[in-house]
Amino acid sequence: MNKQSATICAECAEALNGYEIEDGIIRSPGKFEGEPVYVVHYWHLAMDGFAYDCDARECNGWVFPVTTEDVAMFPELELGCIIHIGESGNGFVYCEVVSENELDDHIEANESEFGEEEN
Question: Who's near 10: CB < 8 A, 6+ residues apart?
Fold first, then answer.
């Protein structure tokens, strides 16, 4: 794990303080409700500018290739998958783990729900 990952993980631990977590899923109401704990890690990475912006694919959010460091921190993830996270118009963070081949289909399927913010 590199120093940047360690720093971000510490931020995540602090961010998760007070949340009820059951079987790796955040159960407390709020921005991350119903999402795996690793979503907080990726959210912090995105907010700190360490994500691939997926605007090139015309989607809302950010993508991250899952690395060996990620799998070491979060064994439930598979090496080579893609994490796609975004934020709904209501401020809730969502996450999907997809393969590179599934990413475009996933974006298209979620376009209406999580695409452009409503006016």
Answer: none
